[in-house]
Amino acid sequence: MSAALWPARLHHLRRDSTEPERLARFYGEMLGDRVEALPGAQWLVQGRGRHLIVGHGAKGAVPYFALAMPDAARLSSYAAALETLGVPREPSPSPLFGDGAFALTDPDGRRIVFGLPAADSASAKTMTARLQHFVCASVRVPQMLSFYRDTLGARESDRVLENDEIAAVFLRTDPEHHSFATFRAPESRPDHHCYETSSWNDIRDWGDRMASLRIPLWWGPGRHGPGNNLFFMIEDPEGHKVEFSAELELMPQEAAYRTWPHEQRTLNLWGSAWMRS
């Protein structure tokens, strides 16, 4: 399965809100991106290399995220491989993917959409920060690992262990260290999504932009252990975390996963960490 999935890259996700236009406007201002209305009371926030759909729903929810396949042949072969395994497919809920797109549902009830994106029409003048990964918290991390690794074909990059139990796991669908991760927590919920920049100087510039907008940094700057990336995080108006990252580790497709202890230093080599459990 990994050969059929590889390489796939996070293209967009949907954030829900009881006030979707307000939330979309926040992201548009924060990122410097265009905001436009979509059918079905949805809003699209779009910039160079990043797309976010904001819809009406439960506050803070992320009902789906979408992975772009490299071409139609790869999308078709991946769908065929899933059919051979008897994995049920569902219609795509995304307005950004066209014919051939489909969705699967993970053990926490969140959908993963696979498809082909249209040509990116966003302005090249926006600051560099490509949508790179999505992370959730879960009460069923072992089942999530089995689904994403053994069913979908993602490659495991790192796992965090506490008393031989998995506290977190990071999975990749292309050479970047993770496009998806899940942390053990008392409830299943979205954790954060991340924008990957090109350098430490970009982290500085995005930090300065947050300061100009009076958006305080919630965590960081720091450096993660798994992924070895520089980062900081902010919170959106509904408490959802948003990460800005640079220099994320690259790993070959066949590289084996590593293990880390469940401690603050694993999540931030420079200091204190956000411990989900």
Write down the secondary-structure element order. HEHEEEEHEEEEHEEEEHEEEEH
Helical content (DSSP H or I, runs of 4+): 10-25%
Radius of gyration (Å)? 18 Å
Overall pLDDT: 96
CATH architecture of the largest domain, please?
Roll
Describe the protein's architecture and organization.
- This protein has helices at 2-5, 20-31, 72-84, 141-151, 200-212, 264-267; strands spanning 9-17, 34-38, 42-47, 50-56, 64-68, 90-91, 102-105, 111-115, 130-138, 155-162, 165-172, 180-184, 189-196, 219-223, 230-235, 241-246, 258-261.
- By secondary structure, the protein is α/β, with parallel strands linked by helices.
- It has two domains: 2-115, 2,3-Dihydroxybiphenyl 1,2-Dioxygenase, domain 1, CATH 3.10.180.10; 130-267, 2,3-Dihydroxybiphenyl 1,2-Dioxygenase, domain 1 (Roll), CATH 3.10.180.10.
- The protein has a nine-stranded mixed sheet with strand order 14-15-16-13-9-12-11-10-17.
- The longest helix has 13 residues, at 72-84.
- The mean pLDDT is 96.
Gist of the model:
The protein has 6 helices and 17 strands. With 277 residues, the protein is an alpha/beta fold.
